[in-house]
Amino acid sequence: MTITLDLKPETRAGLLALAEASGMSLEQYILAMVENTVLPPSRLGPKERAAVWIESAKRFPDTPPLSDEAISRESIYGDRG
């Protein structure tokens, strides 16, 4: 099925930026959004839920791991013990 949407330029630009950030085309991104709305993960099987989770995780930017110092007890609690 083909559907045509008339989007405001700013809406299209925002969707395009989100799609590119997730490594998807605009069409793929919109289809994934629609499918996630119509078929929520709770109705999907384990493999489908995993695929949805992986696709949503791709939207987050890559960040470097924290150093041992950054996650040490002293760094987190400081003088509070």
* DSSP strand content: under 5%
Shape verdict: elongated
Which percent range fits the helix content?
A: 40-55%
**Annotation field: number of helices:** 4
How far apart are the first and last residues' alpha carbons, in Å?
61 Å
What's the quick description here?
The chain is mainly alpha-helical.
What do these coordinates show?
The chain is an all-alpha fold. The chain has a domain at 15-58. Helix content is 53%, strand content 0%.
What key phrases describe this protein's structure?
mainly alpha, 81 residues, 4 helices
SSE inventory with pairings:
Layout: H1 9-21, H2 26-38, H3 46-57, H4 73-77
Helix pairs in contact: 1-2
